[in-house]
Amino acid sequence: MASTSDIRNGLCIKFNHDIYKIIEFLHVKPGKGPAFVRTKLRSLTNGKVLDNTFSAGHKIDVVRVETQTYQFLYPEGNDFHFMNIESFEQITLNKNILDAPDLLKEGTNVMVQINTETDLPLSVDMPASIILEVTYTEPGLKGNTATNATKPATVETGATINVPLFINEGDKIKIDTTSSSYMERVKE
What we know:
The chain has strands spanning 2-3, 12-15, 18-28, 36-43, 49-55, 59-62, 65-76, 79-84, 90-94, 109-115, 121-125, 129-137, 150-155, 160-164, 172-176, 181-186. The protein has 188 residues and is mostly beta strands. The N and C termini lie far apart (49 Å). InterPro entries: Elong-fact-P_C, NA-bd_OB-fold, Rib_uL2_dom2, Transl_elong_fac_P/YeiP, Transl_elong_KOW-like, Transl_elong_P/YeiP_cen, Transl_elong_P/YeiP_CS, Transl_elongation_fac_P.
């Protein structure tokens, strides 16, 4: 049994007869009254996000997880197929378990958290950033580098990302997988 002082991003806990992953948390010490921890939890069974507040010192039931590296093979409807890079064992996960399924490129390595009690996959941790090629965007004009204006661009996985005006088709861009936002243009 752990307490609220052990809460961190990525921690998996049992709560309300389900298993949740902590996405965000904030320890709050108001001037008046007891401290508390404000959390944002994602259900690992159905993908729903829940806001919850734990009082300071509240006991939480932590789920023991093991992290293994898997390679993304291909999507098939709402199912995504992965292969363990050590044992070559394949698993199929539903789209709602993934944080940013529209940014997954075939061959990308991800970290899969597996419940040690049931040997079932709980969640998939994407790399912090991913490099993808822009397949469609409106053409950029010379001199459009000084403003903070953006335009939509479609990348090779089919996702739409807002990018600066100077990005053109064929450019490779680095994307932050947590916020699905443009980070920088990648030179080859």
